[in-house]
């Protein structure tokens, strides 16, 4: 993740990017998150927790809504290889009203 952290200047503190995402992920695991769980993250931004979730979850189990598409694009570019994204198939939508109906 070290290379990915360098790009973050979008309101995300670089110093705590990895730690904060990891802590949220640990809390979800403690609450019973499983690889087959389906997760919808509202305001997924530059994928601070998505970094952990997309790797952990089964393919097509991560969904994110973020009105600022450029944030998601940066997260995908710097935190994931094209092969990882092709394998895991996370799905994103960029609507500003956080309408989740497209993920049904």
Automatic annotation (TrEMBL):
Superkingdom per UniProt: Bacteria
Family annotation (InterPro entries): SAM-dependent_MTases_sf
This protein's name: Methyltransferase domain protein
């Amino acid at each position: 993740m070290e290379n990915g952290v360098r790009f973050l200047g979008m309101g995300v503190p670089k110093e705590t990017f990895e730690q904060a995402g990891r802590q949220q992920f640990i809390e979800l695991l403690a609450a019973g998150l499983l690889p087959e769980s389906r997760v919808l993250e509202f305001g997924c931004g530059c994928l601070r927790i998505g970094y952990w979730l997309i790797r952990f979850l089964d393919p097509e189990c991560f969904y994110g809504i973020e009105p600022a598409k450029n944030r998601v694009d940066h997260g995908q570019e710097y935190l994931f290889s094209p092969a990882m994204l092709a394998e895991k198939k996370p799905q994103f939508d960029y609507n500003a009203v956080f309408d989740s109906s497209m993920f049904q």
